[in-house]
Write a structure and sequence with these properties.
The protein is built from eight helices and eight strands. The protein is an alpha+beta fold and 226 residues long. The two termini are 27 Å apart.
Length: 226
């Protein structure tokens, strides 16, 4: 089975986005049917504004506070984690003058059932990222997605096109604009939130399916990413 990461990237605004994170974590519990969310010390997290603010403020870098805070949450206490553990990594509160962005990621190993993709749509509506996508681990590796992205200053355009991929209006312009995106040779593209949502194929993208790879390659050629 494949491993997946759902990534959302937001431009920094020196704001912890507490309300958004709280809504995100409640949605996370619903999506993965977990009673509690746990912190790195294996303690259940109180999903309230005041409690989350304290957690985040403790994680702000004391020497370089403008780079924000990095926090991890889990579906299972880390001391008891197994192959079905789902993890959230949040980097938030970055100052606009920094080179870093704010990120909200959900990591799902190969033993984890990926929830209905409507949960990821709802998450995008919460954060309104400039880019959000469901990355399939082996596909990212084969296409060298990390190095491709590092070569693009300030995340100004997508590195590759994933099976489920959201781009806001600014990112859509970087590959031709919303109207151009809507004509892409893929299963479905729709206007969504503040941009477009691209579906290469119905359901989850599978790197072992040659038809999926063919659609991805055709889409990346269309957007001049190959």
């Amino acid at each position: 089975m494949s491993s997946y990461i759902f990534r959302q990237r937001c431009r920094p605004r020196a704001d912890f986005r507490i309300d958004e994170i709280m809504a995100f974590l409640h949605l996370f519990r619903e999506a993965f049917k977990c009673v509690d969310v746990y912190d790195s010390n294996s303690k259940p997290v109180d999903l309230t504004e005041s409690a989350l603010r304290k957690i985040i403020e403790r994680r702000v870098d004391r020497i370089f506070p403008t780079i924000g805070a990095n926090i991890h949450f889990f579906t299972i206490p880390p001391r008891k984690r197994d192959d079905e553990t789902v993890g959230i990594e949040i980097h938030t509160g970055t100052h606009p003058d920094e080179n870093f962005i704010d990120t909200y990621n959900i990591s799902m190993g190969s033993d984890v059932k990926v929830p209905d993709l409507s949960y990821f749509e709802r998450s995008i509506e919460i954060f309104k990222p400039f880019e959000g996508f469901l990355a399939e681990g082996e596909n990212e590796y084969r296409l060298n997605a990390y190095d491709r992205q590092q070569a693009i200053p300030k995340f100004d355009r997508p590195a590759i096109i994933r099976g489920f991929h959201y781009l806001d209006a600014g990112m859509a312009r970087s590959i031709g604009g919303i109207e151009y995106c809507l004509k892409a040779p893929v299963w479905k593209v729709e206007q969504f939130c503040e941009g477009v949502l691209i579906w290469l194929v119905p359901g989850l993208f599978d790197h072992e399916n040659p038809e999926h790879l063919q659609v991805q390659r055709k889409a990346m050629k269309y957007f001049k990413l190959l």
